[in-house]
Amino acid sequence: MEAASRPARGRPPRITVERLRTAILEIQGEMPTMQSLARQLGVGVATLYSHVRGQDELRRLASDTVFDDWALPDATPDMHWASWVLDYARDARRMIERYPAVHASRPLGDGQLRYVERVLSRLVSFGMSGSEALHTFYPVALLILGVGAQIEATKLEEAKQGSPIWSIFQRAIDQAPSPLPTLQALDRKGIPALDRAFDELVWFTLSGIARQRGEVLPALPR
Questions:
Q1: Which long-range contacts (CB under 8 A, 24 or more apart) does 164-172 make?
Q2: Rounded to two decimals, what is the model's pTM?
Q3: What's 5's DSSP letter?
């Protein structure tokens, strides 16, 4: 056995709740496992089991940690509710990108429910009723989970291919074995970048919600 693979001598690091939470936040992407968390903490899996009873408890702890730690965007006194929701949608996309497995974990944990409570409370602070806040949050949350996740997957594909998605699409059209006159005639110069497209979708949704409230939102600034 190589020296580098031998366990460290001496007393293992003390595991505290704060160290557990910090280590969980440092493991991004996949849902932490007992093995990956033990490595992050620099302890053996057996030691970790004396603090976390197993993967199910770790899953709940990871979800609660991420959602409780994630701060919502600030709201200025003169801010319109739709502008804040757009900031929130962008921010939630970053959470999905950083912690996709935790964000999608089911059933809903206490941390997720507390997070939704904070979002709804912020919307209520803009003068909405609880019902209005929920009906504003729900469609935007669906956009974030669906479109936002797809955009992050597309960005990964762009990074892998080294080209924007429309360049990849254009190559596929050019290499198609059969004529595609409608696709070949499309002018893609005006198609927005992925982040801009996400903002436009969110703003379009918020404009419909605003109309139900008797408001008219301006066009999304360029």
A1: 165/194, 166/191
A2: 0.82
A3: G
Q: What are phi and psi of 164, to 5 degrees?
A: -65, 155
pLDDT tens readout for residues 132-186: 999 999 999 999 888 877 887 888 888 888 888 888 888 888 899 999 999 888 8
Helices (H) and strands (E) in the chain, counts: 12, 0
The pLDDT, as a whole number, for residue 9 is 55
Residue 82 neighbours by CB under 8 Å, 6+ apart: 203, 206, 207, 209, 210, 217
Domains of the chain: 8-67 (1.10.10), 71-212 (1.10.357.10)
CA distances from 87 to 1, 74, 83, 149, 175 (A): 52, 9, 6, 17, 40
Maximal CA-CA distance, the chain? 72
First to last CA, the chain: 60
Average pLDDT, stretch 29-57? 90
